[in-house]
Every structure is written in structure tokens, then in C-alpha cells.
Design a protein that fits this description.
The protein is mostly helical and 215 residues long. It has a single domain, classed as Urease accessory protein UreF (Orthogonal Bundle).
């Protein structure tokens, strides 16, 4: 609950992955089309990247393989855009300032020290995975909450530029629950950060760039 609390003093960011251009170009005009957009986002972005990464890192924590955790932290930074990576690392540092006290598991302590010493990148998702491991949190529950938080933030970017109502978005997000559990359970084995939703819209309209929202 603490990790995903909106008032947690860490800041937040969300990359829309091209939702605004899709709305402007009238590819997303109603709640059904928004649901399809988010479904594809989960399949191509989260199931192929975030879910895979978190499960690998959690396994490395369980196996006490800190060097592999640090390696995955570095690979995460290499596979995302500069702006995305910078925001992720800034938030990782902010989280660490709040959660680095009273850590009991040695490998988590060591990882956090590496981040503080700039010997590991400390991306937000890796830091949170470390904390989830410290708390003995079920990894699939962690991923469910992580994904729901993100798709909620992404969906909300549509409110000011479309006619989709907040109540419709809320109901749609509830409908994702069962599907999300299945997608998380059947995560791909290898990371794939190619997102056709993002690529399609960028190549179609190069003047419309997905925006980064930072608080």
C-alpha cells in the first residue's frame, strides 16, 4: 500500500506511449478504443518488458546474485529513451530516500548502497522490486498494482482532449483485473522493448510526440 500510495513522497511520471497522438488522429475516440489501446500497451510494453524484468530481478534477489541485479539495472537504462531513463533514475533515488531505513535483508542493503554510491543506476522499477523483496511481497501482486497504477495514469491523460468520461475509465480499469492476472502469470521469457503502438503513431505523424508527464 505504501509503495503505490499516490501521496508517497517520491514524485511520479508516466509516459503516454502515444495516446495523445492517437486521440488527435481519431484512432482513440471512445472507451472501447481506449481499452483496446491499453490492452495492446499491456501486451507489448508490460508483458514483454516490465513484467519480465521484475520477475528476473526478483529471482536474482532470491538467489543472492547482486551482480546480475546490477546488470539488469544497467540494461534497463540502455533499453529506454534518455528522458524515460532519467526520470526513472530520479524517482528511484527519491524512493530510496524514503525506504532505505531498517532494511533487514543483506542483499537489499547492498543493492541500495550500490545505488547511493552511483555503482548501480537505481531505476525506479528495480528499486521498488528490491523493496518488494524486502517486504516478502508476492511478486505477481506487485506487478498487478504496478501495471494498474500506470494504465490509470496513462488513461487519465485522455480526459482533457477527448470525450471519454472518468466514470467510464474507472469501470474499464476494473474490467482489466482478471485479464491482468493471466497476462502476468504468462509473462514472456525474454525482454522485448519494441512497442508497435508507439512506433506506428510516430512514423505516421512525426510532429506529434508522446509527452512525458512529471510531477
Amino acid at each position: 500500500m505504501q509503495i503505490f500510495d499516490g501521496s508517497f513522497p517520491s514524485g511520479a511520471f508516466v509516459h503516454s506511449f502515444g495516446l495523445e497522438p492517437h486521440i488527435v488522429l481519431e484512432k482513440v475516440t471512445n472507451i472501447l478504443e481506449l481499452k483496446k489501446f491499453l490492452h495492446n500497451l499491456i501486451v507489448y510494453q508490460y508483458q514483454g518488458f516490465d513484467f519480465v524484468l521484475v520477475k528476473k530481478v526478483y529471482k536474482y534477489f532470491e538467489q543472492n546474485k547482486l551482480s546480475l541485479v546490477i546488470k539488469e539495472d544497467e540494461k534497463f537504462s540502455c533499453m529506454t529513451s534518455f528522458e524515460y531513463t532519467k526520470s526513472s533514475q530520479d524517482l528511484g533515488e527519491n524512493y530510496l530516500r524514503q525506504i532505505n531505513n531498517n532494511i533487514e535483508k543483506e542483499i537489499v542493503q547492498e543493492y541500495f548502497e550500490k545505488v547511493k554510491s552511483k555503482l548501480s543506476n537505481g531505476n525506479e522499477l528495480i528499486v521498488l522490486t528490491a523493496y518488494a523483496y524486502e517486504l516478502d511481497m508476492d511478486i505477481e501482486l506487485f506487478l498487478l498494482l504496478w501495471c494498474k497504477k500506470n494504465i490509470l495514469n496513462i488513461a487519465m491523460t485522455s480526459l482533457k482532449i477527448s470525450r471519454i468520461k472518468p466514470s467510464q475509465i474507472q469501470q474499464m480499469l476494473f474490467e482489466f483485473d482478471d485479464e491482468l492476472e493471466e497476462l502476468i502469470e504468462n509473462t514472456q521469457l525474454n525482454i522485448n522493448n519494441f512497442n508497435p503502438i508507439f512506433e506506428e503513431i510516430i512514423y505516421q505523424h512525426k510532429n506529434l510526440e508522446p509527452k512525458m508527464f512529471v510531477t
